[in-house]
Amino acid sequence: MNGWILAATAVLGAGVGATVWGVATGPLRRRVVAQNLSTALACPALLLLAQGYDRPAYVDLALVLALLGPVGTLVFARLLAGELAGDPPRARALTRSAAGLGAGVVLALCVAVGPSRALLKLLVVGVLLVGGNLLASRALSGGMAGARRG
Amino acid sequence: MNRRRTLLAVVEVAAWWAALGALWLVFVTVVDPLELAVGAGVAGVAALAARGARRAVAGW
Fold it and tell me: How far apart are CA B42 and CA A2, in angstroms?
């Protein structure tokens, strides 16, 4: 057990645990936001675990999640566009908190890794994670015309 | 297709190939000749797909 694994446990337990609760309960607009946040929080946890176990190859899991998580949310945004149009989700503070957590974790890992190709990979994962989730969150709240056409 | 459009298409695919090949090199754990060869090959296929996707979305 080291600090990285401890931080990953905290993110998984408090963050992903809370999103599982959010997905399982409450109105639709809360569930879709929680679904979006679940990947936004699981990805930093996987990055922290990769560093904690000193296995850089595990970063690939976070990379795949950072890419496919927002794509999954976009599918939900499109399929549920009708239901969400009347009661759009508003979770700006939560989305920004999750994006800030992701950016903070990536920055901390970049400092720990030092200048190398691994740092570039972390930066790509960070951009995909933060950018993807902000985009997906915007699509959920009806900010993108394309998501409404479905 | 005239000469200018052909040249533009080749430049675009080459740009995609260079960018995607660089991304491959960032993602692999160890850079060796085999990885370079495989990366160059898949980046070429992905570059063609990227141009196709860009044209499908942009419509030109």
Answer: 38
